[in-house]
Design a protein that fits this description.
Layout: E1 10-13, H1 24-35, E2 43-48, E3 54-60, E4 65-71, H2 93-96
Parallel strand pairs: 1-2
Antiparallel strand pairs: 2-3, 3-4
InterPro entries: Transposase_IS66_Orf2 (IPR008878)
Pfam families: TnpB_IS66 (PF05717)
Protein name: IS66 family insertion sequence element accessory protein TnpB
C-alpha cells in the first residue's frame, strides 16, 4: 500500500518551523541536517509550519518516498508540537493518531 505509515517503528517530530513549500528533497535535507541521519524506511518524520494548522509527513518506502500533507479545517485548530529540541519527547501511535 502506498504511504502505509503503520509499518514505521519510529516517529520523529522535527523541531522548529518547516517551510511548508518544501517538497521531498527539501524535507530530506532537513532530516539529514537536524537528525544527522538519512531518512529510512523504519521511520516517519513530521514537519509543521508556523501556523501550526498543517503538517507534512515524510515516509521512506523500499523504492521511493511518500509525502503526506494534512491541513486542519477547524478555524482555530492547531497542532501542539515541540518548539525546540529540549521539548522533544517520544510519542505513541495513539498520540500520533
Amino acid at each position: 500500500m502506498i504511504g502505509d505509515i503503520s509499518l514505521a517503528a519510529n516517529i520523529y517530530i522535527v523541531t522548529g518551523y518547516a517551510d511548508m513549500r518544501k517538497s521531498i528533497d527539501g524535507l530530506c535535507a532537513i532530516v539529514v541536517e537536524q537528525l544527522k541521519e538519512e531518512p529510512n524506511g523504519h521511520s516517519i518524520y513530521l514537519f509543521c509550519g508556523k501556523r501550526c494548522d498543517r503538517i507534512k509527513v515524510l515516509l521512506r518506502e523500499s523504492d521511493s518516498f511518500v509525502l503526506l500533507y494534512k491541513r486542519l479545517d477547524v478555524v482555530q485548530g492547531r497542532y501542539r508540537r515541540p518548539r525546540n529540541k529540549s521539548e522533544v519527547k517520544s510519542i505513541t501511535w495513539q498520540q500520533f493518531d
